[in-house]
Amino acid sequence: MFIPIQSEGSLNVHLINTDYIVDIILSMRGHEKQVAIIKMNDGTSYTTCKVELLKKLKQTQQVEALEDEIEEFRKNR
């Protein structure tokens, strides 16, 4: 599943494939800013807002669950 990620401090938006995420590191910048560092299997990494990333990953899981339900429905027809 692809999700859009806006790099912290940049206007660039990257579409990343969640299947290729190797690690997600949560970190603090300053006293209030929480960031997530996403490490991909090809060695690239992206730094983005932790809250936004978690929202997108939650949506991804909901979509995947819905896709599973649809597939199960089709099998049972």
Give an account of the 3D structure.
There is one protein chain. The protein has one helix spanning 50-76, and strands at 2-6, 13-17, 21-29, 33-40, 45-49. A hairpin with a 4-residue loop joins strand 4 and strand 5. The two termini are 26 Å apart. It contains one helix and five strands. It is α+β, with helices and mostly antiparallel strands. 35% of the residues lie in helices and 42% in strands. The radius of gyration is 15 Å and the shape is elongated.
First-last Cα distance? 26 Å
Helix and strand element order: EEEEEH
Instruction: Please indicate the percent range of residues in DSSP E strands (runs of 2 or more).
Output: 35-45%
Helix-residue proportion: 25-40%
Helix- and strand-based class?
A: alpha+beta
Task: State Rg.
Answer: 15 Å
- For the report, how would you describe the main beta sheet? 3 strands, antiparallel
Shape: elongated
- Poorly predicted runs are none
- DSSP summary, beta strand count: 5
Strand order of the largest sheet: 3-4-5
Separate helix tally: 1
How would you state the average pLDDT, rounded? Answer: 85
